[in-house]
Amino acid sequence: MSPAIITLLFLAFAIVMFVTEKIPLGLTSMIVCVGLVITKVLDVKTAFAGFIDSNVILFVAMFIVGGALFETGMANEVGGIVTKFAKSEKSLIIAIMVIVGLMSGVLSNTGTAAILIPVVIGIAAKSGFKRSRLLMPLVFAAAMGGNLSLIGAPGNMIAQSTLEQVGLSFGFFEYAIVGLPILAVGILFYATIGFRLLPNHDTTDDGSVFDDTKDFSSVPQWKKTLSLVILVATLLGMIFEDQIGIKLCVTGCIGAILLILTGVISEKDALKSIDLKTIFLFGGTLSLASALKETGAGQMIADKVIGALGANPSPYVLTFVVLVLCCAMTNFMSNTATTALMAPICLSIAQGMGADPRAVLMACVIGGSCAYATPIGMPANTMVVGAGGYKFMDYVKSGLPLIFIALVVSMIVLPIAFPFYP
Question: What rounded mean pLDDT belongs to the chain?
Answer without folding.
Answer: 84
